[in-house]
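Colleagues,

For the teaching module next term, I've prepared a clean inverse folding example: a structure given as tokens, and then the sequence designed for it. I'd like students to try predicting residues themselves before seeing the answer, so please don't circulate the second half yet.
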């Protein structure tokens, strides 16, 4: 996305490190948005524990606690190299961002080459839609639409999401997209999927599209982080062909 992008279900150290590597800076500046869970102290503490010593600047933007901050959201966001979005409620996340105009600022950040990353709701938000459990049973919810297609997270950890997503793709309620196991990340450059990676052996992603009312599934075996040189595993031919058909490249 933009200069690069990363979307993943719940993080692992290898995935956390990759988020910083994607921006290509020795001393990256990373901004955390914990909006989806209401800016909880636990998520904020975990973010600082993960990135506080790795980044030149590890900042939290709390939309629930902005008292006394004279800076605009645009000034805060565009001063960073990486924007990382936490998990929680996709529906509430987007409602709050739109109310503050943060959705517009994030598109500017993406278009300027800032790396956008996230887990769970923070991964689905960049796509055209996904499946949220914000109000109980899994339900279809739109995203920001920066990336084409849809994303379903926690494919192995919360399997009750998957049939709802598959039916939404089959009926056209959601466009085709990806279902990712926990620990699997999708790395985009602009709107192109460049890598599928994983921090956990035995996990995978699945590409699903509806063709003539039937679902066509392609399993993608990810590149296991830490198992060898990064970027050495090419995308499957089926995924390359899908990309050529849809985008001409």
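(Answer key — instructors only)
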């Amino acid at each position: 996305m933009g200069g690069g992008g990363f979307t993943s279900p719940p993080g692992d150290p290898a995935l956390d490190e990759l988020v910083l590597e994607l921006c290509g800076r020795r001393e990256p500046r990373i901004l955390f948005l914990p909006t989806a869970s209401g800016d909880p102290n636990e998520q904020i503490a975990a973010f600082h524990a993960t990135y506080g010593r790795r980044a030149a600047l590890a900042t939290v933007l709390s939309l629930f606690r902005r008292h006394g901050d004279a800076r605009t959201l645009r000034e805060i966001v565009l001063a960073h190299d990486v924007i990382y979005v936490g998990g929680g409620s996709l529906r509430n996340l987007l409602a709050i961002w739109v109310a503050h105009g943060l959705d517009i600022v994030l598109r500017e950040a993406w278009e300027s080459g800032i790396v956008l990353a996230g887990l769970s709701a923070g991964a689905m938000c960049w796509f055209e839609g996904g499946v949220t459990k914000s109000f109980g049973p899994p339900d279809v919810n739109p995203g920001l639409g920066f990336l084409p297609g849809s994303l379903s997270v926690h494919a192995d950890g919360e399997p009750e999401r998957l049939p709802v997503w598959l039916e939404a793709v089959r009926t056209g309620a959601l466009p085709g997209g990806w279902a990712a196991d926990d620990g699997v990340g999708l790395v985009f450059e602009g709107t192109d999927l460049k890598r599928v990676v994983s921090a956990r052996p035995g996990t995978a992603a699945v590409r699903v599209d509806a063709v003539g009312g039937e679902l066509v599934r392609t399993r993608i075996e990810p590149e296991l982080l830490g198992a060898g040189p990064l970027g050495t595993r090419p995308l499957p031919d089926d995924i390359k062909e899908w990309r050529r058909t849809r985008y001409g490249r």
